[in-house]
Amino acid sequence: MKKTLALVAFGAAIPALSASALADGPFSLKDTPVQVEVPSWTGFYFGVGAGYGHNHSKNNYHDNAGDPVTSNSSVNESADGGFISTMFGYDRQINDRFLVGAFVDVSTSEFTRGNEDIHDGLVIDRSWAIGGRLGYLVNDRTMIYANAGYTQAHFSNDGWWDIDANGVGPTLAGKGGNWFSGYFVGGGFERKLNDNFYLRGEARYSDFGSEVTNTGTFEGTHYVDREAPSIVTGELALVYKLDRPRFLGGNATPIDENHGPRTITYQGIDAAPDSVYYYGGTVFGLTNDLYHNGLLLRSEGVIADYNYRESQAPNSKIDVDDRSLDIMLGYQWIWDNWSAIGYVGYEVRNAHLSPDDPNSDVKGGADGFKVAAELESDDELPYYASLEGSYSTAFDSYYGQARIGWNKQTIVFGPEAAVYGDGADYAPRVGAFATIPFKMWWINVPAKITFDIGQQFAGNGDGDTRAGGEGVYGGSMLRLDF
Which residues are registered as beta bridge partners of 455? Predict the structure, then answer.
């Protein structure tokens, strides 16, 4: 079971024995140091979460035409939807009961308003926040906290901010998208599940002030349209704290042939003609050991920037900002020479096209059901084989990859084949890969780096997938085991 991984830490220190032997037999159990579970909440952490949010906005319109009825208006608007987030932070317990911390989180969301299918909609597709929190430990395993900080949310417009000039003139286009900035306040609870895993529930209120979404002059009338949004969210998250010893004076359970990592993180980049694709994810072993059968939690995010030509006249160049984030619950099976994982979960995805392509089926926001599966050979075998794939109802997107090769222990290499696709197009690939295991000695963490290169082929000839167009592709991925 992944026996090439190095040890993360050694076992607990051996207790010292008494300097003089006792005449009446071995030492008493009362002389044995008692291993006490560490109560401290101090440490760096990362986590994934999912939740639901509600946006309330005031749309404030003004022009200088002087009409008492139409020159000024204020309308309530709203949007609702789900979101997935990743978070990173550091906490420090300052005495038996209090904690202070700093954090940053990034979310992908699908808060919708209107109807993008008829170019009259709006999606709040992503946000980020940085802040601090103050916690109170109700007991050694439960904390309540309050937090506050700075936040931004991106509103992607597809006609919602346009203005129809008096119902008879041309449509006055609003901004294609806009970042709103403001503050947030919130609070929640956190429950320690075991040495490394914590369950967090949080509610948050964010206020973004107001921003101009459409302004200009038409036939002598100057107009200004503003939006003043706020967002309320509720979220449940799983948090993993790094390097948590099990017992006072002890060390973390080592990674060896019997005890696997508790969590795996990976980050990578993929490049092909007209496309750059960044991705990253985390796999949590909910049973605290990824070398044995058990439940998993996985979250993966993608940032893809690509372009293509419209399939119909005027064949304009379309630039696409494509973002997605998923959260999935899985189960892992371990056998003598193979391991397999099945996942099921939820994905949020948003593709912003500039300019709009009326013939594209992949644009705006979408969310939906997602499934994935993986099959991989053991690291100790002289050969290597893997098969993985996924499907999401968000834009009917899918991915599949197969690899076979030779395992020389210091390097694994061989051929690969893959396909990326969605409701717009698909892109098959044929190439080669190489994986090099090593150890990040400065943080005492086993790692692997993978490179791949090959030829990508155009599916329908348009190249309008996040994987790019026809030509040479290449990429790399770094994996860390904690």
Answer: 430, 472
Query: Residue 467 in contact with residue 274, Cβ under 8 Å?
Result: no
Which residue has better confidence, 438 or 11? 438
Residues contacting 288, CB < 8 A, separation 6+: 194, 195, 196, 197, 262
Residue with tokens 């090769």: 405
The CB-based long-range contact list for 227-230 (8 Å cut-off, 24+ gap) reads 227/57, 227/58, 227/59, 227/60, 227/77, 227/155, 227/161, 227/180, 228/57, 228/58, 228/60, 229/55, 229/56, 229/57, 229/58, 229/153, 229/155, 229/180, 230/55, 230/56, 230/57, 230/205, 230/206
In the numeric block, which tokens belong to residue 126? 């992503």
- Whole-number Å distance between alpha carbons of 345 and 390: 11
Cα separation, 216 vs 245, whole angstroms: 61
244/482 Cα distance (integer angstroms)? 11
Q: Which tokens hold the place of 33?
A: 């140091």
How many helices (H) and strands (E) would you count in the chain? 0, 23
> Which residues on adjacent β-strands are paired with residue 320?
306, 353
Q: In whole angstroms, give the CA distance from residue 250 to residue 271.
A: 45
Residues 291/334, Cβ–Cβ less than 8 Å: yes
Which 8-state DSSP code applies to residue 442? T
Contact (CB, 8 A) for 450 and 476: yes
9-50 per-position pLDDT tens digit: 323 332 333 333 333 333 333 344 444 444 579 888 888 898
For the CA atoms of 96, 98, 100, 103, the dihedral, rounded to the nearest 10 degrees, stands at 100
What are the chain's domains?
44-237 (2.40.160), 253-481 (2.40.160.40)
For residue range 229-245, list pLDDT tens digits in order. 999 999 999 898 875 54
CB 430 within 8 A of CB 417: yes
The torsion angles phi and psi of 29, rounded to 5 degrees, stand at -60, -25
